[in-house]
Amino acid sequence: MTNHDMIATAVKDYRGKILKTSEIKKIVLGFYPHFKKGSLLPNDHAFGNKSCCGCVGTGRQIFDRIEPKKYLVR
């Protein structure tokens, strides 16, 4: 399972909600305690990051950035 898949799975019940980065990290680590914290970057799965996940701009995109450290779960 990829990092993208793990993040998407962990936050799927939060679709339509705005979450802080700290909340997203807590949710994902609750599902996957061994997830590498340094790889848990919500901004990689939303528009605006230079080195983003291939999901950005597709139906697989996980988040929409609302403001710094706040994301809408798609």
Give a verbal description of the structure:
- With 74 residues, the chain is an alpha+beta fold.
- The protein has one domain (3-73).
- The chain is built from two helices and three strands; from the N terminus they run H-E-H-E-E.
- The protein has helices at residues 3-11, 21-31; strands spanning 18-20, 63-67, 70-73.
- A hairpin with a 2-residue loop joins strand 2 (63-67) and strand 3.
- Helix 1 packs across helix 2 (21-31).
- It is globular and about 25 Å long.
- The two termini are 20 Å apart.
Tally the structural domains.
Answer: 1
Would you list the SSEs in sequence order as H and E?
HEHEE
Largest sheet: 3 strands, antiparallel
What is the global morphology? globular
What is the arithmetic mean of pLDDT?
94
Taking all Cα atoms into account, the compactness measure Rg is 11 Å
Strand content: 15-25%
Counting DSSP H or I runs of 4 or more residues, the number of helices is 2
Structural class category: alpha+beta
Assembly category: single chain
How many strand units?
3
Strand order of the largest sheet: 1-3-2
List segments where confidence is low: pLDDT < 50 over at least 5 consecutive residues. none
